[in-house]
């Protein structure tokens, strides 16, 4: 080998370049940097970005530059509110990025999936993908039919309630890559469900007496499952004439569980500050079975969005860990702490704190998956 020879990285064999790009796809930031090196590398990036695997989520943070004083809280300082912004925390790089979002003031996101956020404004839900520069917002039909199931009129809700009508919403499918997608939402009292299928003119309410308090719901194996804290797990057939059937009994404690799919299993994970407790649905017994391990996976549990990842696909991440966002009430007391990490193999709990140089967290962090699917050239 000629030690004096200078290697031109731009002239590497195409097979080697494909291998390098394949390895970098695990982390979206590294793949974007790869595509920015030169024209030929950008061509590889463009050809392969829609093959990007599902990414580890980051945290969408609602922040402000400095901690407000008690007097500012009392005065509801308008200037301080105007300085609030969004940021994105990347776990791999352990870094906070500025993340401008065109959201109405004081907007809470009701859900997230594959880069899309679900937010509410004036009795209507919207889908917004901040990772896309074009075709990144979808206006769903007004919530009129959903609202009228609970309120005397839309005006009564808008002017008498003054708060969000929706508590949580989930998106099934990716509108950036398919015209077929589904949105399911529950009301602020967690007593009713409605769904919207792409192309429909309005929302379809699921009318049933089965639900008393909806703890969580998930689209699992092409079926909508609803966990009612008092009455158990139900499967919902969301055809033109929705039907509800009971699948499993209640787990036990009410107001405590999130549903998430992990390695093909449906799990119910308890919200807890002191340890890990989870159950999987036994498809044969139609009952809940407690589990002590995640079989090498990790869970990311949030107020409005939860997901799982197999850590063997992501170097540097510890298996059998649960990352749980801190509720809003806790954040107010300790603004630097945003996530608690439950490490099952060693049996301890760690907290993720943003450093003092990073912005102050103002509200509950939201898991969001970076994506390039649907990005223009």
UniProtKB/TrEMBL annotation:
Domain (KIB1-4 beta-propeller): residue spans on this chain: 88-329
Alphabetized Pfam families for the sequence: Beta-prop_KIB1-4
PANTHER family cross-referenced by the UniProt entry: OS06G0707300 PROTEIN, OS07G0183000 PROTEIN-RELATED
Protein name, per record: KIB1-4 beta-propeller domain-containing protein
Organism of origin: Aquilegia coerulea
